[in-house]
Amino acid sequence: MKKIYLFSVFCFLMLFSCKSDEQIGGVEPESSFVNFNIDAVPYSKLSTYAFFKGDIKNLNPVSRVIPYEPASSLFTDYASKKRFIWMPEGIKASYEADDKSLNFPVGTVLIKNFYYNTIQPGNTAKIIETRLMIKKSSGWIFAEYLWNDAQTEAELVTGSDFTSGSSKNITFKKDNGDVITTDYRIPSETECYACHKLDNKPVPIGVKPQNLNVTYNYPNGLKNQLQKLVDEGYLQSYPSNIVSTVNYNDTSKPLDIRLRSYLDINCAHCHQENARCDYRAIRLSFTQTANFAKMGVCIMADEPIDPSLERIITPGNPNKSVMHFRLTSTDESNRMPLLGRTVVHDEGVQLLKQWISTLNQNCP
């Protein structure tokens, strides 16, 4: 009798245990678990972090992996991007200035996925790479993950076996129907550092309050992204008077604000003090370009390229402006930005050309 009773209790406990692990009411319980050991990262496989639930290629984040999108996006050969922030429990970032990246605590991970929805033939979707920036006690580190063709996993390639980076030949279709074939550049750790460098230390680029002070369509509705970070316990607070960038594709915004936003996200990380191109004559952060001279208007070029290109920006004449020349070039010795693109960003060039054409001042 005692044996039968114990067996019955065992079955009951097993049944209860199994039920607790099954779907309740047909809905799978939400998990916020991320596998993160700061002493062990970067892991060799992206899936090990458990940032995403279900089929990893869907990039469906677990609850505390928060999506974000800057007002204007860095151009990378027309790649689309999905970005996320994850932080361990109990720590928060802090605000320092509109144009300075949030001060993230140790343990923060910034996740950036690069993909195309129109890979040819067939307009198929394909993730090319995922880049992580991980904040360790020694500072930010980079971890580069390349996706396999089956889109089932991304493998770590940062390190001694990837010092020179690599390229991947792709053919994709633009929104206007143009088909482009290019050798998409996958950067080495050194190349990442070239752009993500300030005061000789690696830093993030896009996570500045001026870029995040816009709404995002989260699964439960629209919300300001900075407020979302506060609500999630990821950010202490932020001021209500942030001077913010805009989406440079938004034609309802003033032309000069759109161009300044474009230059800020694509160029300012190098063209600022104590960065890669601090020796150049221009400063392209959004907070500085309210002064058009900072963008190079009427400023003599500080490098010999072509006799017809005397000024960085020649008012009313894009074809005599160094900046226009560099944005339309794909030559590695002339193009700007130096890294991150192999093709011309037609929309960005058109924006610059339109703005230069509206300038009617006379240079001294």
TrEMBL record:
It comes from the Bacteria. This is Repeat protein (TIGR03806 family). It comes from Chryseobacterium geocarposphaerae.
